[in-house]
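Subject: for your reference before the review

Hello V.,

The reviewers asked for a structural picture of the protein, and I figured it would be easier to keep everything in one thread rather than splitting it across files. Below is the amino acid sequence we used in the manuscript, unchanged from the supplementary table.
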Amino acid sequence: MKTRIVIKFTSVYTLIYILSKDFAYYITEIMRKELIFNLTFGLVNVLVMVIVIVFARGYNYNPVTNKLEKQGTLVVESEPSGSGVYLDDEYIGNTPVQKTSIKPGSYSLSIKQNGYYDLSTNIEIIDNYVTKKYYKLINNNQQLVPITAANVISQTLSENGNYLISLEKTENKASLSYISFDKNAINIALGQENAYSSKVIDSSLALPSQDLNISVSKDGTQGIISSSDLTTLLYFKTQQNFSPIDIKKILGFTPDKIIFNKYNNIIIKRNNDYYYFDINTNSLTLKASFNESQKPIINSGIYLIENNKLKVYTNSSTLNDTIQFALPVIIPASEINSGMVYVDEDSEGNIFVSTKSAGSFGINKTGGIINITSNKQFTKNVTHSENDIYISNDKSELLNINFTISTTVLVSNLPGEEPRFARNRDFIIIPDYQQKTLKAYDTNFKLIRTIELGLGPTEELNQMYLNQFDEIIIRSKDTLTSNSITYKLVF
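And here is what came back from the structure prediction:
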């Protein structure tokens, strides 16, 4: 009996031992496989994260070099479409074209089309960014198409290129009118692209006895006719039936200066006080008041340099509401007091400062300083757009500050008169008033062609504009009859 019990116990123990051994092996195998799975899954996750981070930082695989490199994309469109595009002399397709996986840096870009002049420019490719460009090529043929009568007294183009505003002589009166360059769909459908809409604002103004100037707001919707001594000040609106208003009668005094700021507000200076003038309520709001020792600078806005800081007076109606920027250099008080410092501002709030002794520099809207150009002063605003400004000086030099990529480009030996930039920055037109020609350059200032205007022997080239569609508008004046007429140059 005892023997049986022992045998049974031994058998049960043996069975338990065998089962436990198999179970332990089974458990160990599961843990081993789970460990391998977890390690593999973790490594895959790390690899995916690395790939995501690499691509998020602008890196892409380049099959040519077999390396990961930062790359950008270029998209090019043109008028006319179907034009050949060459990047560093390598053909990449016809417009519209998209080229991906481009190494960041500077490149030459050429656009070519039969019947049009070749266009060459430089572009900057930025990593992990799509650079979009649109170019309008210049045709080989052109003609002058009149768009105004032959009796223009004074004329100006709004900064956005939408409105050409003219003061014309009509019998014993003066007529104020404007041309809108907005494309009319019906006229385009009928093949009459030159049939711009026009409107007479007032046809019964007193004929001026002195030269008058027309200044308009940035958007072209309002303007002021003024004499050089500001004794004549007439305010008008372009888009409404609105008879010009005599501002001087409302003010009761002759201001020292009157301008439109970048927000289309009217700023009036009287002695040391600067006001916003509201034409709807005929009211003056004091914006800033200065003492005799302070010398504010008026351009696109009101600016004051003091204690090595630049104060920018904002569009707020609050008195002395300012934004301050620390200056990177010390500007002598003698230059500030004598009006030798130039300050301007673009639509995004980026600031350009130019001085005689400290050179020129940019301050972006967050206060960052853009490359200082030492010992060079620029005071002639050529053009500016979003985050980009071109400005020239009396030494035939042109400075470009790009606030997006924080770079500056200086062009020396500027060929002739003040350049007019196409709004897409794809070509430049420089008028030659003596030769009565226009010279078209690419953005490297390489001459594309000289445009003979075909003006008569007694006609002078008086003014030249580029409107919102980069169409060339010129104004001529006959030295014998004093007739002045405006043309569109049709290519």
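For the response letter, the relevant points are probably these. Residues 1-9 have pLDDT under 50 and may be disordered. The two ends are 123 Å apart (CA to CA).

Happy to draft the paragraph if you're swamped.

O.
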